[in-house]
């Protein structure tokens, strides 16, 4: 599925100018059909998978209880 720069910006939650800059700099792969840059949406699948893993790790970290007895040694 190919998306325009505007559609991609909306899907990623980024400004259109930033996505356009990424396309021109080669950070986002695209095809130019003479009028528009078309972006294959499947190139972001890995990004979304990694983002979900990071969210899960953060949730796990947030839900880990703080130990009741913290062993703090005063070295004074």
UniProtKB/TrEMBL annotation:
Q: Does the keyword Cytoplasm apply?
A: no
Any keyword Glycoprotein? no
Alphabetical UniProt keywords: DNA-binding
Q: Name one GO molecular function term.
A: DNA binding
The record's annotation in Pfam families points to: HTH_17 (PF12728)
Every copy of the Helix-turn-helix domain together lies at 2-50
Q: What is this protein called?
A: DNA-binding protein
């Amino acid at each position: 599925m190919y998306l325009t720069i505007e559609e991609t910006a909306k899907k990623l939650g980024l400004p259109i100018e930033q996505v356009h800059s990424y396309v021109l700099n080669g950070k986002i792969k695209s095809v130019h059909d003479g009028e528009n840059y078309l972006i294959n949406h499947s190139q972001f699948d890995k990004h979304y998978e990694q983002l979900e893993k990071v969210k899960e790790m953060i949730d796990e970290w947030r839900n880990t209880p703080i130990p009741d007895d913290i062993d703090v040694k005063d070295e004074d």
